[in-house]
């Protein structure tokens, strides 16, 4: 969603803020702006579109200031135009504010402020906040922000500056991520560490309900009730290289190609070959507690929800524990049945997805043990879970999730193995699985080396209006994921279906213009899937099959085949998804789409 950067120090703020914004562009990017305190007062610059448009507005000459805030916007209230772009300023133009989140009671606050003579310039919910702060300001900016926030309902990560306090940023958080970066005679505020990583890797993650007064050489953190909080400084071990493209045309391609490494990172130190088991210390649950579990609820959104669907097959197969997988946005608004034998697994790359966070909190309130399967170490979901497993995929910048998906599936496979070994999985079956798991990273590398085949298929079908993805069993969620990847980056309508379900409706869509991607691996349902393929071919549909190496029959029955190496049937999603990621990528490139920043999408969905 929206990205925030703030700087206070002795260097020129403009280039630091612009560089930070560029690194946050992936979060939300329909418009951008920055405000800086100068010797002439507050200067505000805004533009619609990418950061390079904002650079053009600012021109060649840098504004002299070492104190400012900046923002990339993903519109919620009010269309993406210059007026609605942040920062917003109070009527006198002395206080400027950037905000990520939604002020839910903004209408009531707006009516109240209008009665006091406030004039509103924008259609945003955010603008009321800067007027509200102004209305409480009597010389102490932190206090004015604090009182204003007691009136607010909703979610926010904010940064506020004022011409009356030329060495100070006030930051506050409720439901939207915010981090302080600790530098030498300079400090930063941002919604994501990548915005400040060039300058410092020492950060303090803010908790919900706190206000921080940040100057160039200090930061003071209190709760909204004025209770002092001791900051916990954490060292981020990401390098700058990891958030740069490293010679690839797009972050998405780089991240697809990183998967042999990221999968190795997900299993490093976690495979116990002798016992045929996984070592997962972070779960924070005793053996008895894990044995007590008789129901698992998995909650997540989007791609992470698809990895949850795969985990259902894994956990039910290996541990014989019943698993429900639910969209976080639905889970939080029903009345879920939870008891002391239920655990909830929240899956999230960013660890900040508003719906997943709320679902997790709802479950916790009902006394449920919550485990997180998360990528971002300092994120709200990671911090709020009772235990969990980090996927260690490193920063994922491309909006379309790729490496995080495979790492999530890998970690969930380890969790399923652990639960299974405590119950009915033999040492021998466990050892078989662990050995096959260890082979996965090099098998992924082998598929990636075959990307020319996939590129050629993309060249043939890139103009299609619709795609169908079919899979069965544990590869049905992979069909859903393939369809999601294609639609989000190429804007081609695509649907994923269980292969046999096709004849109950979608078959009506099939004609010679319809490419149908079928995951047809040598597994117990192979013959059934071949029948489904025959049904598509009989109606002139164009079949692209993902098949197992060594399958000599399939090539004659389909239009194109992409082979993947053989593995255990439970591990096949880790391989079958790779060609689907590449296919979407090459189709989107051919269509000239914005791969890393597809229209209307944001990387981290921090609003409901
Ligand atoms: C799709 C995609 C999204 C995310 C979803 C959840 O490529 O990236 O569907 O998977 O927004 O995000 P996280 O995993 O950060 O909770």
Can you characterise this structure?
- This protein has an 8-stranded antiparallel β-sheet with strand order 3-2-4-1-10-9-11-15, with helices on one face. A 7-stranded antiparallel β-sheet has the order 5-6-7-8-12-13-14, with helices on one face.
- The chain is α/β, with parallel strands linked by helices and 608 residues long.
- The termini are close together.
- It is globular and about 80 Å long.
- The chain contains 18 helices and 27 strands.
- The mean pLDDT is 93.
- It is 34% helix and 24% strand.
- The relative contact order is 0.09.
- It folds into 3 domains: 2-239, Aminohydrolase, N-terminal nucleophile (Ntn) domain (Glutamine Phosphoribosylpyrophosphate, subunit 1, domain 1), CATH 3.60.20.10; 245-448, Rossmann fold, CATH 3.40.50; 450-596, Glucose-6-phosphate isomerase like protein, domain 1 (Rossmann fold, 3-Layer(aba) Sandwich).
- A hairpin with a 4-residue loop joins strand 16 (271-272) and strand 17.
- Helix 7 runs parallel beside helix 13 and helix 13 runs antiparallel to helix 14 (427-448).
- The protein binds fructose -6-phosphate (F6R).
Q: What would you call the shape? A: globular
Total number of strands: 27
Q: Report mean pLDDT, rounded to a whole number.
A: 93
CATH architecture of the largest domain: 4-Layer Sandwich
Helix content: 25-40%
Count of structural domains: 3
CATH hierarchy, class of the largest domain = Alpha Beta
Summarize the structure.
This protein is α/β, with parallel strands linked by helices and 608 residues long.
